[in-house]
Amino acid sequence: MYSQSQTSRGDRPRCKVCGSEDVIAKINGEYYCAKCGMKIVLEHSRKIVESYERKYLG
């Protein structure tokens, strides 16, 4: 009924990637722990920097 990251009443949210209950972030509607959330944010930031390099530095 619920995926690992979704919660029902009284349940603690779990990280979508590793299943940890130490959730600190909700990204695009999914819950993540610090370690997994950091990986997502860093990957997104890397993609932005690469697009700016292509666009402005040739």
Provide an overview of this structure:
This protein is α+β, with helices and mostly antiparallel strands. It contains 1 helix and 2 strands, in the order ββα. It has one domain. 41% of the residues lie in helices and 16% in strands. Strands 1-2 form a two-stranded antiparallel sheet. The longest helix is centred in the last third of the chain and has 24 residues, at 34-57. The chain is rod-shaped and about 50 Å long.
Q: What's the helical proportion of residues? A: 40-55%
Given the C-alpha coordinates, what overall shape results? rod-shaped
Number of domains: 1
Order of helices and strands: EEH
Structural class: alpha+beta
What value does the average pLDDT take?
Answer: 89
How large is the radius of gyration?
A: 15 Å
By DSSP, the count of extended strands is 2
Give me the number of helical elements: 1
Specify the biggest β-sheet.
2 strands, antiparallel
Strand adjacency order, main sheet: 1-2
The low-confidence runs, each spanning 5 or more residues with pLDDT under 50, are: none
State the end-to-end distance: 49 Å
Which strand-content bin applies to the residues?
Answer: 15-25%
